[in-house]
Target: Glutamate 5-kinase
Amino acid sequence: MKKTNIKRIVIKVGSNLLIKDGEINKTYIIELSRKISNLYKRGIKVILISSGANAAGLNYLNLSRAKTLLQKQAICSIGQVQMMKIYENAFNFFGQKISQILLTKDDFTNRKRFLNLKNTLIGLNQLNILPIINENDSISTEEIMFGDNDMLSAMFSIGWNADGLMLMTSVDGVYNDEKKIMKEFKDESSILSMKKTSYGSGGINSKIDSAKLSSNSGIKTCICNGKKLENIDYFINNESCGTMFFPKKKIKNRKAWIIFLSKSKGRVFINSGAKEALEENKSLLSIGVIKVYGSFEKGDVVDIYDENEDKIGKGIINYSYIETVKIIGKKSSEFEKILGYYSYDELIHRDNIGIVK
Ligand SMILES: Nc1ncnc2c1ncn2[C@@H]1O[C@H](COP(=O)(O)OP(=O)(O)O)[C@@H](O)[C@H]1O
Ligand SMILES: N[C@@H](CCC(=O)OP(=O)(O)O)C(=O)O
Model:
């Protein structure tokens, strides 16, 4: 067995892999469970992100499709049980215990909920339990939904600090306009425009966007054929599989959350001197701020723009919008006189800044 540098891997399986002829594909799930259980036995930690609730619910109720959003939400809650019943039986066969976590986008953007999620994952890890994750379709409304499990997988991989992410689907990877699988994704290449498969909700574009997000944060990512489970071995053994998205510099923990997962509540525009300071990994002082927009409180995340109005980063701000407006362009020694109190020298501390450019 080859040594691997992948210790934590997120594997996402799409609906089309899990449903065959309208029914949950039990044979596939058993093979997938065998593979993942073996990885656990090798000490490789896996998170399985599984779609299929909608398709399984339709099959359970003998329906061809949901008529309304309300029905779709109900059907997903029904189908999720069917999926988990089969996963439980399959993993049990290989001696691997499982848990279920259903998530919305809020669970990532809200730092408290995100830290709670991380704690749950630490607990599951200590107990050697495999978490199986899906979007919480039954309660997801427009503002808090991922819309598909591809983006959920990318955000999850960043938050969990994964080494690798496999987006497994029913084709061999991304086809270019010459109908060939791209071995490595290149931004400038043209993609073949094909219709997505019947059950899938994301399609290839959401897989590409998600793979770009995770590889930009430093996670090795691929879009590959999940019917060929040997792809998991290739990926772990550092061989090529499907379409590869090779990682940029690894961004970890707090900074990764700020840059990739948090939701900005405002915008802060800074002058060239402040920009230079940020590039040298210094804190943002209010004296370098030109203008500010938004509706944020102390502790919220804001986007940071330079004088040319290009976004250069994000950060957790130490003062509310109302306070920040009053201290723009001022030195911290003046804060007490202006605000009547004084809490922080920095508007955004260097530890709470993530540079994106
Ligand atoms: N350029 C492309 N390369 C690969 N697949 C494509 C491309 N354009 C569209 N597709 C379609 O996207 C599908 C994958 O998306 P989707 O149906 O959402 O899958 P899943 O259910 O696995 O998430 C493929 O099966 C294929 O039919
Ligand atoms: N959460 C939904 C699946 C959403 C989704 O992304 O589906 P897919 O494109 O097949 O991975 C479900 O369980 O049916």
The CA atoms of residues 234 and 240 lie 6 Å apart. The chain has 13 helices and 14 strands. The first strand starts at residue 8 and ends at 13. The mean pLDDT is 93.
